[in-house]
Amino acid sequence: MSDVLFIILAALAGLGGGAALAGFFIKNKNAKLEEETKLKVSSMLREAELNAESIKKDRMLEAKEKFLKLKSEFDEETSNKKNIIITNENKVKQLQQQVAKEQEAVKRKEAELDSKKENLNAQLHSVQVKKEELERVTNQRIADLEKVAGLTREEARDQIVTMLTEEAQTKASSQIKDILDEAKLTATKQAKKIVLDTIQRTATEHAVENCVSVFNIESDDIKGKIIGREGRNIRALEAATGVEIVVDDTPEAIIISGFDPVRREIARLSLHRLVQDGRIHPARIEEVVAKTEKNIEEEIVEIGERTCIDLGIHGLHPELIRMVGRMRFRSSYGQNLLQHSREVAKLAATMAAEMGLNAKLAKRAGLLHDIGKVWPEEQELPHAILGMELAKRYKENPEICNAIGAHHDEIEMTSMISPIVQASDAISGSRPGARREIMDSYVKRLKELEELALGFDGVNKCFAMQAGRELRILVDADNVDDQRAGQLSFDISQKIEKEMQYPGQIKVTVIREMRSVSYAR
């Protein structure tokens, strides 16, 4: 307000006296401003001094408190360390005392040991003296004995060693013979029991198949229809089925000949359908044969499935099931292969159960052991190895694969099921009437058996008896003693096992004053 008034007065005063009046007012105004400024500065300085003093006191108090806290912590830490040092010093003193006690004990023990050592040295000296005296007396006695016996010490020692060796060998041979006899007796009884129980519990048929089938007809007039004009129907039928159709003077019968049972069955069923239908010509023959082949394939699968169900075998690969069905139309030495495999499966399962093994695995291996015989493609491998490869291909158990491959000893047996399957196969094949061999191969096998035995030293005569099931050997009593006779029967049986193939087992009997019998299984 004063500033505004000053301005108004200056404006009204004019240029002369107004200028002087304005200067006065300005001067007065500056003096007031200066005085006010000084007062404010003085007040601010007093206030700053007061604040600084307060802050100083606060900082001093905080510093004092912190110092006291650090001093307290230092005193506490110092006290703890002092206590630790005192404790360690006490432990060191205790250890020093204990070490001192142990040192004293060691010194006492050392003194005792020194005393004992002196006693032992004295005793050793006494023993040494006695030993020297004993050696002197012994040498004197040995010298006296050598003079009396006329033998040196080395010669007497050699004689004693020889006598003891011969005596030990005689006793060892006797004990070994007794142990072997007892083991053979026990093992033979147990094996016979298992085999007899298995055979008695397994019933089977023994009909032998051949390579021909007979198709019965109601009248001989049908033969002409089957032959056809200039033989075209019978030629078409033979070409379609791959078998030989024999139409002769046999009344009301036509013979179908062929080595493949499947082809014979296809020809038999085709003839049956053609005769029933009455339309017999080449086109119709081919049509009926094609349908029959399809039906046979279905029947093969059905036979395989029914066989697995009858035996309680599950999870078999479809291709293996089909091969099992094909066994129905395959024979081995005149024995139906499916019937043989079913029998082996039952025998193996029974033996495995008697021995506490897995009967299911044994039954499965028995059914599949000859599966390699029905593989349709020509293979250079033996049927056992081929069957093993097929079982591996279709993820069968390794024990089953080994049993299949080892049942003719082509590979090493690694499972207890393998010898069971081999024994079951031998039992099934060696049943009377189960198989039929060609006469030439039969005679040749018997001659080879006799020649093998005649190749051993000391054998005078050899006779193959009971269709090759027993080999009787007559030896020279002067050159072959009882012990050699037993060894001879064993050696011959082992050579037969290694070099010959045969069904079942061969009994090897060596005849002298006594008889020793071993079996090649």
UniProtKB/TrEMBL annotation:
Q: What does this protein do?
A: Endoribonuclease that initiates mRNA decay.
Residue span(s) of domain HD: 337-430
Q: One Pfam family of this protein, by short name?
A: KH_1
Please state the Enzyme Commission number of this protein. Answer: 3.1.-.-
For this entry, the protein name equals Ribonuclease Y
UniProt entry keywords in alphabetical sequence: Cell membrane, Coiled coil, Endonuclease, Hydrolase, Membrane, Nuclease, RNA-binding
At the top level, the lineage of the source is Bacteria
Annotated gene: rny
Coiled-coil spans are 85-137
- Protein family according to the UniProt entry: Belongs to the RNase Y family.
EC supergroup of this enzyme:
hydrolase
Cross-referenced HAMAP family: RNase_Y (MF_00335)
